[in-house]
Amino acid sequence: MHTATTSWRRRWPLLLSAGLCAAAYLPRLDAPLVWDDRSVIAQNAALDGPIPLKDFFTRRYFEFSGEQSWRPLATASYAGLVSLFGKSPAALRGFHLLLHCLNAWLLSLLVAALGLGEAAGVWAAALFLIHAAHTETLFCVAFNEEILVSLGLLAMLLAHRRKKTGAAALALSFALLSKETGVIGLPLAFLGDLLDGGKPLRRRRDYALYCVPIAAYLFFHFGPMKGPASGIAAFALPGSQRLYFGLASLATAIRVFIAPIDLKIEYFAVYPDSFAQALLLAAGGVVALAAWAWLVRRAWRRERGLAFFLLWPAPFLLLTSPLWPVTVFNTRLFAERWLYLPALGLAAALAVLLRKRPAWGAVLLLFWGACGIVRAKDWSQESRLWTTLLDEYPWCAKAEEGLGESRFRRGDYGGALEAFERALFLRENRQDRLLAFYAPLSDGHFVAWESPSLRRWLGHAQLKLGHIKEADEQFQQAAALDPSDGFLYRIAAYSWAENGDFGKAGSWLSRGLAVHPEDPFLQDLGRDIARRKLSRRVSFD
Q1: Which 3-state string (H, E, C) describes 201-262?
Q2: Model pTM?
Q3: What is the C-alpha to C-alpha distance for residues 313 and 392, in angstroms, rounded to an integer?
Q4: 468 pLDDT exceeds 60?
Q5: With contact defined as beta carbons under 8 Å apart, do 206 and 124 qualify?
């Protein structure tokens, strides 16, 4: 009994963290799906029925997944949940919250396996579990690849430490099929062996085995399963600008990890309002690099396990850094979901410092827990996500459009139209600073002043307010900008039929079927239009 009591006393940080985590997430698991989850899951008709396994390994994957990169396991995870529980936000988020807890446990095992002790492992799990920046990854199900690739990498490294090479190779395959950053598993395994025994080449046969799933994955990823945007050349910023944004990105990541307040769903890579603020961000990046190098050097001499976790974040932060040529996927300084993988190493390194300072650790857990509870409230109310972004970027047309969508879904059609019109004003008057920075470089491929989705939403809001002619004008402009938008043809054809103009409805129907001839909704609507009578009521909210 005394031993059991002592064991639980050692684990009190994890119990505190679990309680804070429950307080932040459990009351809000059933909040409506928002942001990317709207298009990827909630409105994705492909998930309404079973998806053949072979479709995950053909080009059709990009038609139903909403992904630009091949991540079949990530898509299959929520597709499987939808088949079991429907599009229930609580079931989808609850499953990934359990996986998040599993990641925290595996991290504690890895910390102990690297010789840093059980106490450090407990603190690492507690810190990682409750970090407030994880709200984005846990509330937006479409970002589940961060959770899954972490699970695969942690399992791979633990199996590698225990010399279970076959299991490690399987776990690495799991990570790779979740997200391309799984390739980092091999260098992490090599680094662990280097720091541990200093002679990693003794396990070269193991590394050779790990190269098999990596090679197979890279063949498919850059071959038959190449992303749909890969054929378009990326555009690059000058090296000096990329260096600045890279330093600012690092400073932002470290700031968010230490003090996860003022969180938002976009951290744009644009110059700040003042030279002083720009200088502060760049200097923060330089200081972070210098402090990191000093800590790694010191840990290398004294505690190699600590050095391993200090080096852990580097490849993940580098892969998402604006140092690389900028495309649509990286017009950001930073995204909170990008911190999920680096936070594994950062939490473990911080745990080593806190294992003998429990009072400091308790204060930090309570602070991060409070930040998480506050941020979870934002994610449970979609309009708060966008208003917090507008507080930071009042010039952002994307934020105004997002606010309009949230008001529309709440039934506030007048307020939605106002937000959409503000977004249009920002675009037409060239006041959006992100678009002003990137649109000239993009040449219309990735970033453009005109937005077909905004035009469609303007038309949708006008419809709800009874202004069908004004709505049709917006739909016409949306169709000119994006002729492949099947959702647009559904709304336009149905709306004119609902208003009794079956001729106009038939015109929109013909345009839609020309682009999507097998669309079941348009086919059914065509029969209704031919009979000049709607057989069902439909809401496109």
Answers
A1: HHHHHHHHHHHHHHHHHHHHHHCCCCCCCCCCCCCCCCHHHHHHHHHHHHHHHHHHHHCCCC
A2: 0.90
A3: 27
A4: yes
A5: no
